[in-house]
Amino acid sequence: MTEASGMQGMYEQWLGLLPQFLAQFGAQPATTGTRNVGGAALPFPADQIASAAAMTQNALQGLAQAYAPLLQGAGAPALLAQWAAALPMTGASLPNAGATMAFAPWLMPAQAASANAGATPSLSPASGSVSVPAAAQAALLPFQQMQRAWLDMGNRLAGGTTETYVTAFDRTFGALADALGLGPVRALQAAMTKLIAAQAAQNDSRAAYAMLVQSALASGWDEHIRRLAEMAARGERVDSMLALIRMWASATEDAVHRVLQSEPGLEATAAVTRAGLAHRKQLQAVAAIIADGLDMATRRDLDEAFREIQQLKRELRAARSRAPRAKEEATGPTGDTKRRTRGRTRK
Amino acid sequence: MTTNHTEKAILATQAAGAVAITPASLAKELEAAREKLARGLERLGKVSEDDLAIATVPRDEVWRQDMVRLYRCKPVVDRPHGTPILIVYALVGRFQMIDLEAERSLVRKLLAEGFDVYFVDWGLPSRAQRWLGIDDYVSGYLDECVDVIRERSGQDSINLLGICQGGVFTTCYAALFPEKVSNLAFTVTPIDFHGDKKEPQNGSGYMNRWARALRHEDIDDLVEAYGTAPGSMVGFAFLMMNPVSNLTKYTIDLIDVMADENRLLNFLRMERWIADRPDHPGEVLRQWLKDLYQDNKLIRNELVLGGRTVDLRRITMPVLNIYATGDTIIPVSCSKGVGEHFGTDDYTELAVPGGHIGTFVGGKAQKILPPALAQWFKAHAGRGAPAA
């Protein structure tokens, strides 16, 4: 990885999450934006920030289109209900008909919400219900997308999926595997079986982690609503959509910290880390079998060479350190030995 | 369930009462925001590579070994103070933080105070450096740098200024080579890696808790699986400490950032620094997480480097410990109140406003940190007497 690709790679990974992040507010799925402004290539990271800004610009337009009709129809309750509908625990269902005033069951799973519909006021012109604008439909799965984004982060931290690597191995070594001989092929099959098991374990740990993230997001929404209610009780008002989003972000961040720093949170994070590492090591075991069969040097071979080189450097350093002391013992201390030169590369 | 449902419905109704957004105000606000972003994009279109240059202080490379470089900043006074200062940054980021911009530069402010300033650039470790341990940095590269400066300056000992992980390195160095250190200053440096247990705070010290939730063998697996920890992985770990605000930062927060040219350029320069994460040598990571984050060996005088124990009681030179009051990466409780563990009778602590990085680039901190360091080093001048 070059320096430039390393710098930009992390940015691209993180900014790749922005469409999901923006979608959860009801904005249209954002485009990837542009890295050129006025046709000229921009220096890093201005190029990446330009993409993010363009994406945000599009998202704001989507927000205006999604929320204006809701506000027009039923005011703030409709806006909050639309937003709350995207919570992961709701089963990805917008509050049909009259969930708005109570933002229905907070929101409850779709079936429960339907069952409860009779208990909540209806908002249509005739019966109180509000039709859901097309733009808002685009936000049907916002928090689920956010959750997926979190899992994507886990993938990026712990490495790709088994399928990705298996496909790559197959393409690279598929035909050659037959030439390895029976023994290596059996070893390879055994290693692949372990790899699949490691993948399954990794999926389990990710599922547990996802549940935790869901609970953090739900808890964040609870906190957001509680803070708004407290504001109302104090007679304070928020008249800015952006401020409202920032309030949500603050409440959610606090909840995320609280949940992920709790004992269950730390256990789940450790389990994801552990499973990701086990999976990666098993992938490396598969690669090593193939490399051995084809008489190719592996990273491990190179690492051993690097280890020897490093050990030699340490011995050299120790020898240099001993040399002036030996000289001092023989001739007594001098200025030269006190500030000894050790064959450094100096400019 | 019913009670909970009813309570929530009441709360929701109350909450809606706080929202005074109308269709007209929504349209007006979002359109204004879009216009700001449009103008910001125009500004971005005019940004050049020169605009985003960081760490531009004039300097000379005076030593190099492997990927490590030692630089001497060009003094801005005819006769700098006698004892040079060596600034040692962390491995997890690049040294450019100390000279991000001309107006936000620790280095330039120390130069302006008449100091002779050197700094280490740890470079970009590759797979070949995976076996480098903390001792290779402390007793190897750092000791070489100190010797070069001693030789160039004609001083027996020099001043050290460590930052974060670099502060741990300089502390270890001062304990192992006390005769070569006149004064030891470190900033946002963890000394008590379990300090966060004393004062747990939501959103602070996640790295401490994460590391302790892992087993020793998990750390071994991490190092074995990766060799060197990819810089992008380390960067992601930092972003994940505050995942929500790190998403608003690149979306709605851009609206205001891009509305002001200076603010935009400051932001871009900082982002350039943030994105530049070197790979982390595996063996350093192993020791860092196991010996320090998990076992807290530094403050217990149990850390062993190159067969020698790092004993903080051997640090008898003056010590200045600067911590950031809003630091969530290195919780205050990991840095503060550790004076009794050092052998010196001249120990000072200073609290600086701001977060872990804000300490060096924040407006308020810039007015406190560099002058405080300069004053302290001047007050403790004369300890690095010329060699006979």
The CATH architecture of chain B comes to 3-Layer(aba) Sandwich
Q: Please summarize the sheet with the most strands of chain B.
A: 8 strands, mixed
In percent, how helical is the residue content of chain A? 55-70%
The percent range for strand residues of chain A is under 5%
Order of neighbouring strands in the sheet with most strands of chain A: 1-2
Distance between the termini of chain A: 29 Å
Q: Could you give the count of β-strands of chain B?
A: 12
- Briefly note the structural class of the backbone of chain B: alpha/beta
Shape of chain B: globular
Radius of gyration of chain A: 29 Å
CATH topology of chain B: Rossmann fold
Shape of chain A: elongated
Q: What are the segments of chain B in which pLDDT stays under 50 over at least 5 consecutive residues? A: none
What is the CATH C level class of chain B, in words? Alpha Beta
The total of helices of chain A stands at 13
What is the subunit organization of this protein?
heterodimer
Largest interface: A-B, 120 and 105 residues
Fraction of helical residues of chain B: 40-55%
Biggest β-sheet of chain A, characterized? 2 strands, antiparallel
Describe this structure as you would to a colleague:
The longest helix of chain A is centred in the middle third of the chain and has 52 residues, at 182-233. Chain A has helices spanning 3-15, 18-23, 46-74, 76-84, 110-116, 134-137, 142-158, 162-177, 182-233, 241-260, 263-293, 299-331, 335-338, and strands at residues 36-37, 40-41, 345-346. In chain A, helix 7 (142-158) packs across helix 9, helix 9 crosses helix 10 and helix 9 (182-233) runs antiparallel to helix 11. The model of chain A is unreliable at 1-5, 91-99 and 108-147 (pLDDT under 50). Helices cover 69% and strands 2% of the residues of chain A. Chain A is mainly α and 347 residues long. Chain A is elongated. With 388 residues, chain B is of the alpha/beta class. Chain B has one domain: Rossmann fold (3-Layer(aba) Sandwich), CATH 3.40.50.1820. Chain B is 43% helix and 14% strand. In chain B, the strands form three sheets. Chain B has an eight-stranded mixed beta sheet with strand order 1-2-6-3-7-8-11-12, with helices on both faces. In chain B, a hairpin with a 2-residue loop joins strand 9 (304-305) and strand 10. Chain B starts with a helix and ends in a 9-residue tail after the last helix. The model of chain B has no long low-confidence stretch (mean pLDDT 94). The chains are: A mainly alpha (347), B alpha/beta (388). Chains A and B meet through helix 1, helix 2, helix 3, helix 4 and helix 7 of A and helix 1, helix 2, strand 1, helix 4 and helix 6 of B.
